[in-house]
Predict the structure.
Amino acid sequence: MKKDVTILIAEDDEGHAFLIKRSLKKAGIANPVLHLNDGEEVLNYFDRIDSLFNPDQSSGYILLLDIKMPRVDGIEVLQKMKSDPVLKKIPVIMITTTDAPDEVDLCHKLGCNSYIVKPIDYEKFIDVVNRLGYFLEIVEIPKAG
């Protein structure tokens, strides 16, 4: 992955966030990684309160988004991002324990780029995140601006 792409992890479970970051590093991802604890932090990061996009628009972003989070959940974040003319370009990969077909379908209808179910089993979880790391190595991410 290009080095000017920041990976945002929106995950309220500190253990899951740690495992994702560690697995991405093991997969050779050297990009900046920022952990945000919930959907409100994601929206604040993109400064949507006053409808201005302040992060560096010459960089790219990819969001790994959990669904079940406090304050603002992942569905609402996805909906807001994909309805915004600037933020909709940011790839969003849902990474969640929810495998309900209705949830998967809804996320795709709202515009998520991929949907990954986090396995409960630790070894399987690590394997899934490692595969995600390899995927991120080859994917092209658009600039934010």
User: Anything to note?
Assistant: The CA atoms of residues 98 and 117 lie 6 Å apart. Residues 5-138 form a domain with the Rossmann fold fold (CATH 3.40.50.2300).
